[in-house]
């Protein structure tokens, strides 16, 4: 199954783009390095930082720590809630999958790797052929990730836009400082786009969710720097 096959199936299922959500800190590392990066790649770069994820240990165990993950939908918009991976979403065109550099690197998971078991066959982890993918893929299934296997970095050539969650007024300064730092990183990366602040409909629960989080949780998501001890911090 080729990368172009995967792209065509996604088009058939009316997938409109490739969505990657992350924290402000990790997103700034992407921008500093001129592209979306695998977690392994960022971890090896001096002066680049990323927010820890609960799945890191399993990703290393299953050999996917050097993969880049996408969703088939904007999870925040579809689920009417915060995306657990972070408030910043990078939206790529499906044309990314036509890049010659990604031939034989594009995979689609059948289930979220956090539920994979040791010894599980590749056929139970991924869709392995075109018929399997056509029959089993479901747009908006949050466990079915489009992944770029063993790909350290992809450029912003196919990046369409970047979107960021607003915070409740209580955290106005944290949001505005994070937005400013992220927008500065966008310009320094040579991108002319302006970060879009997400506008949610009345059904979305994200603002209530942010109000229920502790300030330390908010800072973890919206931090843009680390202190001398390597701890995530954010100026207020």
**Strands ordered across the widest β-sheet:** 1-4-8-9
Count of helices? 10
Envelope shape: globular
Q: Kindly estimate the percentage of residues that lie in beta strands according to DSSP.
A: 5-15%
Rounded to an integer, what's the Rg over CA atoms? 18 Å
Q: What letter string, H or E per element, gives the SSE order?
A: HEHEHHEHEEHHEEEHEHHEE
Class inferred from helices and paired strands: alpha+beta
Q: Could you report the average pLDDT, rounded to the nearest whole number? A: 93
Distance between the termini: 49 Å
Q: How helical, in percent, are the residues? A: 25-40%
Oligomer: single chain
Counting DSSP E segments of at least 2 residues, the number of strands comes to: 11
Q: Are there runs of 5+ residues with pLDDT below 50, and where? A: none
Largest sheet: 4 strands, mixed
Write the layout of secondary structure elements.
Blueprint: H1 3-12, E1 18-22, H2 24-32, E2 36-37, H3 39-43, H4 56-61, E3 68-70, H5 75-79, E4 88-92, E5 106-108, H6 122-125, H7 130-136, E6 146-148, E7 153-154, E8 159-164, H8 172-188, E9 196-197, H9 206-212, H10 215-222, E10 225-226, E11 232-233
Parallel strand pairs: 8-9
Antiparallel strand pairs: 1-4, 2-7, 3-6, 4-8, 5-6, 10-11
Helix pairs in contact: 2-8
Gist?
With 236 residues, the protein is α+β, with helices and mostly antiparallel strands. The protein has helices at residues 3-12, 24-32, 39-43, 56-61, 75-79, 122-125, 130-136, 172-188, 206-212, 215-222; strands spanning 18-22, 36-37, 68-70, 88-92, 106-108, 146-148, 153-154, 159-164, 196-197, 225-226, 232-233. β8, α8 and β9 form a beta-alpha-beta unit.
